[in-house]
Specification:
The chain is mainly α. It is 71% helix and 0% strand. The longest helix has 48 residues. The N and C termini lie far apart (67 Å).
């Protein structure tokens, strides 16, 4: 009797696995969208409202490079930076 139920059990496991995979894919998409909307959009809008738009930094400042005093740098530091 157990031998005849084994193919049915395997088929049931495959069907349940396929359903759970689909549910997991949908839940993942929904959760990642919610995190984007709840976390990243408000941060981006707040920074934009405060005038800290990194995509437009070059247009307003001319450059985003920081000036360094040449006395603070030595060639020995550049030989092995890591």
């Amino acid at each position: 009797m157990t031998a005849c139920l084994l193919p049915v059990w395997r088929g049931l496991c495959k069907a349940v696995g396929a359903v759970l995979h689909t549910v997991g894919s949908v839940v993942t998409a929904v959760l990642l969208t919610a995190v984007y909307v709840v976390v990243f959009c408000p941060i981006g809008l707040t920074l934009l409202a405060l005038g800290r738009a990194p995509l437009y930094a070059g247009a307003r400042a001319g450059t985003t490079w920081r000036r360094r005093d040449p006395a603070d740098w030595s060639p020995d530091e550049a030989a092995r930076p890591y």
